[in-house]
Design brief:
alpha/beta, 8 helices, about 20% strand, globular
């Protein structure tokens, strides 16, 4: 029995899709916002923070100016570097095995994350997933040069193509509305996962939405006799 896929390559969002980094994110946001004189978010309010670029979130969620947001991002990232990029981060159950099985089926994979690329690479290496990725795309450290999901998806596809991967039938796995919008800007369909931090309506526009890893596996891999 062999395994195939309806997709020629798979792009993965990271936060809320592959990893749960909410404990560390909440701790850093608490320290960062308190430092700048703002109220720290509750865990329930993390839905407003996890996923989109922090540069945008500081402006949208607490009303910072672009200049203040740039300073806050730098402070937040310094906290993350001091804490360690892999501290307080866990893989969602079953995702590591699924990524390994996709690779074993010969399907090219890449990350396409709004998280800074240095952190994405550290996480993929820490969890032993980098060997299954033909490209690891993330945001630039300032979250401005390369920050929008549309640009990051485009960059992930560019790197996959440069690596010799077939990018004719891509799909993005993500958990926020900006994943859907950014993928759509590149003509890429989305499989929306509901185990991350999102509102129910955010899956609108996705080709499919799943609640479990088993459901996602069925959409990514097909057994052939």
């Amino acid at each position: 029995m062999t395994t195939s896929s309806p997709w020629s390559c798979i792009l993965w969002d990271v936060d809320g899709t592959i990893v749960d980094a909410s404990v560390g994110i909440l701790s850093r946001l608490d320290r960062c916002l308190t430092h700048f004189g703002y109220a720290a978010p509750t865990r329930a309010e993390l839905v407003h923070w996890i996923g989109p670029p922090m540069y945008d979130s500081f402006q949208k969620n607490v009303g910072m100016t672009p200049e203040q947001s740039t300073e806050a991002v730098a402070y937040y990232r310094a906290l993350g570097k001091a804490d360690g990029y892999t501290a307080n981060v866990e893989l969602y159950p079953g995702v590591g095995e699924l990524i390994a099985d996709v690779a074993a089926a010969g399907i090219a994979q890449a990350t396409a994350s709004s998280k800074p690329e240095v952190q994405v690479v550290a996480l993929m290496e820490h969890f032993g997933l980098s060997e299954h990725m033909q490209a690891m795309a993330g945001a630039t450290p300032d979250e401005m040069t390369l920050a929008t999901k549309a640009d990051i998806v485009a960059e992930a596809l560019r790197r996959l193509k440069a690596a010799g991967a077939d990018t004719s039938r891509p799909v993005l796995i993500g958990d926020r509305h900006h994943d859907v919008d950014g993928a759509a800007a590149n003509g890429v369909p989305v499989i929306f996962v509901r185990w991350g931090f999102s509102w129910p309506h955010e899956s609108e526009g996705a080709q499919a939405a799943v609640d479990t890893m088993a459901e996602l596996r069925r959409l990514l891999l097909t057994a052939e006799v």
